[in-house]
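WP5 quarterly update. Target: TlpA family protein disulfide reductase. Source organism: Butyricimonas hominis. Length: 461 aa.
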Amino acid sequence: MKTFLLILILLLVTCSSRLFAQETKLTIDLSQYFQRPKVSLSGPNFNEVLTYDSSRKSVISLSLKEAAYFTLSIDLSANTLYLEPGKDLMISVVPNEKGEFIAIHLDLRFEGENADINTYLNTCKLGSMEDKDFLLDETTYLRKIEQLLKQNKKTIHKYKLNKQFEEKELMRARYQVLEGVTSYPIQHFWEGGNKTSAVFKGGETPIVKEYIARQLIDDEKAWQVSAYRKYVKSAVAMLAFTDFGASWESIIQERLRVLTQYFKSPRILEDMVQNMALVYVESTRGDSLMGFQTAYDKYVSKPEYRQELEKVYAMWNKLKKGQHVVSSGAVYEDVEGNTVSLDDLKGKYIYIDVWATWCGPCRAEIPFLKKLEEEFHGKNIHFVSISMDERKRNWIKMVEQEKLGGIQLWGGPSAQIAIDYKIKGIPRFILLDREGKVIDNNMSRPSEAVTKKVLEELEGI
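Structure tokens (predicted):
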């Protein structure tokens, strides 16, 4: 009887540790790093910018129910962490063997119960496929994929990490490689990923598509691994692909058909249908779910998911004509380093060009934009170009060399305007009225004749 009670107590303790969250303290020591970087931590249902004290240490306590992968970003350096409930971890940014700090790949020293796991994650170099491999024929490509998977598995085994983590890591490493396979049916018809071929058809590459389908497993344990979730999203999209000209209504319905063909798990179906709904609304710029609404009501019941969808609708409504969409406090730099806000330009119409020096189509519009600026010189309108270049010096060089006119501003790759207007591709043109409200959040290009006509017809121009 005593033995039975002891076993029962042990079971209860074990179950309790799994059901209830435990605190995990994460300490980040930047005292040896001469920079004052932006530090952030992201993971499952967590995304936060971290602060550090005068000793240049950042300490944060996380409430964890289960072990999970996180990403620690220190300016340009992105580092994978594995945090476990109740296991504290200390991270120190240290110089490399040459006594240097490489901003894009900082060297880290780990201390704590799972230091060996985190050292592995940030030092182990697993193999990966190259872009040129997409040009291989199907059989050769898949043979190379399988060889790579075996090689990475062997590498992970060599570290002799605890079995529970190793099982999860093997899954993560496998599907990180396999996600690339989902790009093969399209990338195979591109020359080095730069030039599309008119002969591409959705029915091509049947061997690779069959291989992609075989890797789908209807397992909620696997679904907990983010690399597998990413793979499923990409795989479903590829297996459902027919042609580039299909409407989003037919695209989303075909993705639903593929999804329900391979999955029955309520959790996977709910998560995937939610993701598909968000993709649909964004791709159609705020349209209702139309024929997809029935499937959404059937599979999605989480209140937080439905609230998320409503927020997306509300966001797109803001982008409609007559709304004011400029983030408070958002500023951009001019060539001299002065800060400029779009709010500063109210009182005139604003024709915005979001571009970058590396973007061919953006540069092709420059002569037409210059001509437009000349024709509307002295009119009641500002022509504003906002660069999303990562390197500010490249932007300044082009502004000076090309003698670009109008108001030239730099926002960088994370320019607030790209966030405000959900910009996924450039060039992008936006027309605002004299109060800063949207007239057209996807305005025609300077090279299109309709642009001049629309501007000429503006009241009080």
